[in-house]
Amino acid sequence: MNEHQPAELDLPLERRLGKRTAAALEKHLGLTRTGELLNYFPRRYLKRGELTLIADLPEDEDATLVARVLSCSTRRMRARRGSLTEVVITDNSTYGNLSLTFFNGYQAERDLRPGTLAMFSGKVTRYQGRLTLTNPDYSLLEDAADFNADEALRPVPLYPATAKLGSWRIKSAVEILLDSVDFSQIGDPVPPDIAIRDGLLSLSDAYQQIHRPATIEQARGARERFRYQEALVLQAALARRRAQAVGEEAIARPPVAGGLLDRFDGALPFTLTNGQRVVGAEVAAELAASHPMNRLLQGEVGSGKTLVALRAMLQVIDAGGQAALLAPTEVLAAQHYESIRRTLGPLAEAGMLGGDDAGTRVVLLTGSVTGAARRNALLEVASGQAGIVIGTHALLSDEVMFADLGLIVVDEQHRFGVEQRDKLRSRALRPPHLLVMTATPIPRTVAMTVFGDLETSVLSELPAGRAPIGTHLVGLVEHQAWEHRIWQRAREEIDAGRQVYVVCPKIGDEDREDTDPFDAPPPDEDTRQLASVVATAEYLATVQALAGTRIGVLHGRLDAEAKAATMAAFNEGRLDLLISTTVIEVGVDVPNATLMVILDADRFGISQLHQLRGRVGRGGLPGTCLLVTRLEPGHPSRARLDAVARTTDGFELSQADLLLRREGDILGSSQSGGKSTLRLLRVITDEAVIAKARADAAGIVAHDAQLDEYPELAQAIELYLNPEREAFLERG
């Protein structure tokens, strides 16, 4: 038995439910322990006799519904032995009929007579133009008239179910637990003073009322109790991690008067924004402390995050340490390398001809740096000669040894797992300082939940000279002639001496999409041939409006040398138009690029579109982004494009993203490698609950960082943090 879990919750389901039921719960839901099933809450509740709207059923997904039988007929099959029983069920609306098919369904023929009310569970598919369920599981329901008055009011809990394990079978198993568990043996994670303050249900009553409520109001009260409990457990875990970080011993890296940072600041040809000064002061103070900095730096595309990070690196180098910058792609790592070397000038060329002897060295380590260049880079890192080391996952290789790693800067944190970050941290003599940068604006609720163990800074203003970006939705269904106008518009920019990006969701026609799986919209029935880099390059070579222009292509299947050569050509103005996948999404900085055309833009998510358009308008000239779609007006996916066209405020867009996308996409596989970690808590609607729990957790941990006086809360954290959820917490 797990010593951290109460015996009642840790008991195997087989001991309470029998081998057959326990095996089904493990096979279909992955549940093996009493506590796991008790915490498998209903997703909603039905009033007795309430019918499910068939028109709302999700196609190609498992569904559970309540409906009345309209007709039932059986016929012999011609091609093989046996019979087919066809049942038509209805929700009593004009179009609400659904066909069910049972192979050799003798029991279904007896049970499902016209007028019968039943609950059905199965996979919704379409056959010959009609919605259907094949061999569904079902459970007969009595009519409300057959109940006594109290029973008629009792809601029916609906659990997340599968085609092979219906909601009513889960309900039956839960009811056995409710009658057999000794709730007096289960400690309450919510401290008594908080439960009294908020008038929360007892744990025993909450479990009873969430699984078998007498009224919808009872279910609502139980859900509110568990929602707060979930928020408190999560926030206490994060607060404990913050306290542990403060207790770790790092090497202090205080500013050094007259050092590299002072000399760099003195040579800057522009003035820092107010935000850069404020955040820079926060970072400088934390680097000077003897416990590790753990800070998340949010900032709009082009707000100057990299400059803040570079100044932090120079402070660490002045204090004798090294800084590593971890980037998600080779293109971005190379961009950072060139940009930082260019920005530092002679300060990045210590020991080289024309370099500043009091400066440092910057090295690049990616998978494509090989041979003598790689050996030299590794030597400079190991000897401490290189103060700034920039790379991709190649930095995590065992052969990379640092002399004194003092600061890790992680760019676009959502692309890295906790194992990768921790592997780099382990290279330091003592815990290094950590600065996480993201240009994907994070709403306050998500920041409190996902990055809750990091302090947060926000750069909200853009540097002087950054031009606005105009974004326009180009609907080709209603405006077919606009397709030609797009390329005429591109030619106008090129003739004015500017450059153009064209972004496609695929590399070639045979490829899957190149959209971010964590950010892209869910796939639908879309059978369009999506734009690809290869096909678009072939097509644009024939477009008269672009005759004589210099066109290049960039995508992830090109080798590193070809990618670098293409980006260099575009950077230096030797290409007019670059056709690319999302490889240019982050970090790519070409000041002369003023127009971006995103083909099949509906295949990208909101934050990806926002990131992409941030590549134009970076040189003081106004930028334009055209979101091209072939979806018809009114299609749900166009709502995302409307949102992006409406505003360039990343925080407003991130809120729209939360509202438009399913919760599991926000806090699901991208965060934990599995389904949504959150059971009842919803970052969209529960900001007040999360904020209250965060304040309560901070108070608890400030009083008792080890939670010795709160053993039930400590146990709940252990129960909550299975390996997937631990990764969810440690994404910061």
TrEMBL record:
Q: Which InterPro entries match?
A: DEAD/DEAH_box_helicase_dom (IPR011545), Helicase_ATP-bd (IPR014001), Helicase_C-like (IPR001650), NA-bd_OB-fold (IPR012340), P-loop_NTPase (IPR027417), RecG/Mfd (IPR047112), RecG_dom3_C (IPR045562), RecG_wedge (IPR033454)
Which Gene Ontology molecular-function terms are recorded? Answer: helicase activity
Asked if the record carries the keyword Nucleotide-binding, the reply is: yes
The Helicase C-terminal domain sits at 496-659
UniProt-listed Pfam families:
DEAD, Helicase_C, RecG_dom3_C, RecG_wedge
Note the PROSITE patterns from the entry.
HELICASE_ATP_BIND_1, HELICASE_CTER
> At the top level of its lineage, which domain of life is listed?
Bacteria
Keyword hit for DNA-binding: yes
Extract the Gene3D superfamilies matched here.
Answer: Nucleic acid-binding proteins, P-loop containing nucleotide triphosphate hydrolases
Domain Helicase ATP-binding: residue ranges: 286-459
This protein's UniProt keywords: ATP-binding, DNA damage, DNA repair, DNA-binding, Helicase, Hydrolase, Nucleotide-binding
Annotated protein name in UniProt: Probable DNA 3'-5' helicase RecG
Per the UniProt record, the source organism is Arthrobacter hankyongi
Q: What is the lineage of its organism?
A: Bacteria, Bacillati, Actinomycetota, Actinomycetes, Micrococcales
